[in-house]
Design goal:
By secondary structure, the protein is an alpha/beta fold. About 30% of the residues lie in helices and about 25% in strands. Bound molecules: S-adenosylmethionine. S-adenosylmethionine (SAM) binds next to strand 2, helix 4 and helix 6.
């Protein structure tokens, strides 16, 4: 699917990527430059993962993303989900040094505004707090917020009960793969291993795994 927003996919840190990513762009890592449209949006995922996000979101109506950053994955979701649906984007955008400016938040809003047609609800808070006031079934839940093991597990325990019977959950940075960035110590890797590879989480199974992305659904 062709995107309205120019994205730069991971990996972009390796020496091999030096040729692909112009030096000028590498120097412009701050989200301020993305907000002003001076460089592509830095996706924190690979092109193959982006394809999975788009394919799995196709036609879905109630989509929740935990952890938005510059908005690349939110663009993938909004572009493919139903135009009649609602995309809920949860991120406290708390890691900025200049809160009044908050370039990361502005970059994300600018990118998402150019992608897709569905309604977007921005929820500027921590997922652990947002869930207290949540109601209604979720078609697709993307967990990519706080990466500490306890936090990923809490997101799963808090949010998965809201996932519809035919809904799915996607975990990012949740799998070690050749040439990839996650290590076995990553919180999402450990959480997915504990839940779905040891069989401790009943009623769910892994549907698909691409690079660091793991998609799970209920056993029907
Ligand atoms: C890895 S980035 C998300 C990348 C994005 N999904 C993408 O693929 O382009 C993690 C984001 O999670 C946010 N975050 C951290 N803790 C969070 C929490 N408890 N709830 C929601 N978002 C959180 C951070 O502010 C950061 O923007």
């Amino acid at each position: 699917m062709v995107s309205n927003v120019k994205l730069l996919f991971r990996p972009f840190e390796t020496p091999e990527d030096a040729a692909r990513v112009p030096f000028r762009v590498k120097k412009m890592r701050h989200p301020f430059f993305s907000w002003l449209g001076l460089r592509p949006v830095f996706a924190q995922h690979s092109a193959a993962e982006h394809e999975v996000l788009q394919r799995r979101a196709t036609g879905r109506k109630k989509v929740v993303e935990i952890g938005v950053a510059e908005g690349a994955s939110a663009c993938a979701l909004r572009e493919s989900m139903s135009p009649e649906g609602t995309l809920y984007l949860i991120d406290p955008f708390h890691l900025t040094r200049l809160r009044a400016l908050n370039a990361l938040k502005r970059a994300a809003h600018a990118a998402v505004a150019r992608s897709g047609k569905c309604r977007v609800e921005w929820i500027e808070d921590f997922s652990q707090k947002v869930v207290a006031n949540w109601s209604g079934a979720i078609d697709l839940l993307f967990i990519d917020g706080d990466h500490k093991k306890e936090a990923v597990m809490k997101d799963w325990l808090d949010w998965s009960p809201f996932v519809a019977p035919d809904g799915i959950v996607l975990f990012h940075d949740a799998r070690v793969f050749p040439g990839g960035w996650p290590t076995p110590e990553y919180g999402p890797v450990q959480t997915v291993n504990d839940l779905f590879r040891t069989g401790s989480q009943q009623g769910w199974r892994i549907l698909e795994e691409v690079d660091s992305l793991v998609v799970v659904g209920r056993i029907q």
